[in-house]
């Protein structure tokens, strides 16, 4: 079946401290913000973000666990 959304690597999807599904968006130089999203598994290595992202936003795909550790 078809699903509307944005394909991202599964490594880009993580959980925050409230156990919500999030991806990190690169907003500007050295500025990253978590976005609460809903995802569906696409295949073994990718997921589809079905809500929570806008067109043109840059999703962090590497080092996501490190961003969650920065306070």
Question: Which characteristics define this entry?
Answer:
71 residues, four-stranded antiparallel sheet, mainly beta, 7 strands, single chain
Number of strands: 7
Share of helical residues = under 10%
Order of helices and strands: EEEEEEEH
How can the largest sheet be summarized?
4 strands, antiparallel
Strand content: over 45%
Mean pLDDT: 92
Give a written overview of the molecule:
Strand 3 and strand 4 form a beta hairpin. This protein has one helix at 64-69, and strands at 6-9, 14-15, 21-28, 31-36, 38-41, 46-51, 58-59. The mean pLDDT is 92. The N and C termini lie far apart (40 Å). It is mainly beta and 71 residues long. 8% of the residues lie in helices and 45% in strands.
List the helices and strands and how they pair.
Layout: E1 6-9, E2 14-15, E3 21-28, E4 31-36, E5 38-41, E6 46-51, E7 58-59, H1 64-69
Antiparallel strand pairs: 1-6, 2-3, 3-4, 3-7, 5-6
